[in-house]
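[job 0412] stage=complex_fold ligand=adenosine-5'-triphosphate status=START
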Amino acid sequence: MRTAGASVPFEIHIDEKRFRGADGSSVLAVQGLSLALQPGSFTALIGPSGCGKTTTLRILAGLDHAYKGEVHLPADTRIGYVFQEPRLLPWRTVDQNVRLVLPTPDANDPASLYAALGISDMTQRFPTELSLGLARRVSIARALVIDPNLLLLDEPSTSLDETTAQKLRALILEVWLGRRTTTLLVTHNIREAIQLADRLVLLSRRPSHVLAEIALDTPHQERGEDFIEAKRQELMVRFPETIA
Ligand SMILES: Nc1ncnc2c1ncn2[C@@H]1O[C@H](COP(=O)(O)OP(=O)(O)OP(=O)(O)O)[C@@H](O)[C@H]1O
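[job 0412] stage=complex_fold status=DONE, emitting structure tokens
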């Protein structure tokens, strides 16, 4: 459902989401999960593997309608979705992949995005010529080129080595600080969440619901190693079932 108004939150309420298991049985994945994203905020959704984080993103993005509940989005909502796998078309160049989501290829100029994401010199390459880290950057450019007002990031640093992951996190933060696009990051990496988000939403094990919401008011530039580690340990003690 789309409601009027530019500064109203993006809201999702999942009363119940079930999947059909391999043996035909019905598996309750999410139960009673409510989330409101304030415009300009950066929320990290954290929870154990298989608790329903990706499912929640898909429902919010309108990719899954088979659930009980409601999604309320402002009328002008434009969603940029960075999937766990980059999902680039192998027969198109980087630039063509990014422009593909525009109404016409020249509707927006991605040059400044390429520069911000450090991929300006590879726009004529094909996806098979890119490392996973670079392909992720391209998929972020593709999500941002439509000027979304809601950005969904599904495990953007997963399967990357730590140095590449850290570079990507720095880029994500720089882009967010510059644009303040409302962002929902799904991650099982608590350190990443503490580094990037201004609010943590912790989910329970399946069937998942919100266990706790934690505001992170410390400015990003003051979140050094010590801060991140201290916060992680504090959360591990308070929420051992979610924070590994
Ligand atoms: N298409 C599907 N068919 C059957 N079960 C599914 C399907 N998609 C997800 N599930 C199940 O629903 C639950 C939630 O899945 P989901 O992918 O949302 O979890 P997640 O928290 O994103 O996991 P991860 O951290 O491992 O990516 C899991 O138990 C998963 O096995």
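Residues 19, 27, 29, 47, 49-55, 188, 206 surround adenosine-5'-triphosphate (CB under 6 Å).
[job 0412] exit 0
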